[in-house]
Design goal:
about 180 residues, mainly beta, Lipocalin, 2 helices, 8 strands, elongated, disordered N terminus
Length: about 180
């Protein structure tokens, strides 16, 4: 599974041979839904991301069913009723960092990535702001953005409409290391 995911990500952002690639194999994506009646949160610790340091292309992919919740019933409803993870097993983002980043120098920089978010079978253009920290050993990237559920045709039944926010806050955290192909 991880090998096919890796090949797909490398294909999405260009051939890995001869290019500088950074990979995060255990990135994290969390979401939070706040309403007066109930707060809902989920965390996925198995997200893969790649940055091509020459082209500034970025790709992120995750298995939707790998989100964990404090309450197993929430997890079941999330997978069966809302994100329909059997029908739409993955979510992804492919885009490009807009700023010129010198990956050879240590430092922290605000970055903007423009691209396509594919979630629940619906693709939407998104612009995401984050903080990229470059170090001698790789890089880290954190980002926070909002996703209106209606943009991705995620329907909330009227019965629970007051328990789930219409706009969900998404947070990401990735620690990248140089990509080394397994020959």
């Amino acid at each position: 599974m991880k090998i096919s995911l890796m090949l797909l990500l490398c294909f999405v952002i260009g051939k890995a041979m001869g290019q500088d690639m950074l990979i995060a194999r255990n990135g994290q994506i969390s979401f939070f839904s706040e309403t007066p009646l109930e707060n809902i949160s989920g965390l996925n610790k198995n997200v893969t991301a790649i940055i091509n340091t020459k082209t500034s292309d970025v790709a992120v992919k995750m298995q939707v069913a790998q989100f964990e919740f404090p309450n197993k019933l929430m997890q079941e409803h999330f997978n069966e009723n809302y994100l329909e993870s059997d029908k739409y097993p993955t979510a992804s983002f492919t885009g490009k960092i807009q700023e010129k980043v010198d990956f050879s120098k240590d430092g922290i920089q605000a970055v903007t990535a423009k691209g396509i978010l594919n979630m629940h079978g619906v693709t939407k253009e998104r612009t995401m702001n984050g903080k990229l920290t470059v170090t001698k050993t790789g890089a880290s990237l954190i980002c926070e953005f909002n996703v209106p559920l209606a943009d991705h045709k995620i329907e909330i039944p009227k019965l629970v409409f007051e328990k789930i926010a219409e706009v969900i806050t998404i947070k990401t955290s990735f620690s990248f290391v140089p990509y080394e192909s397994k020959k």
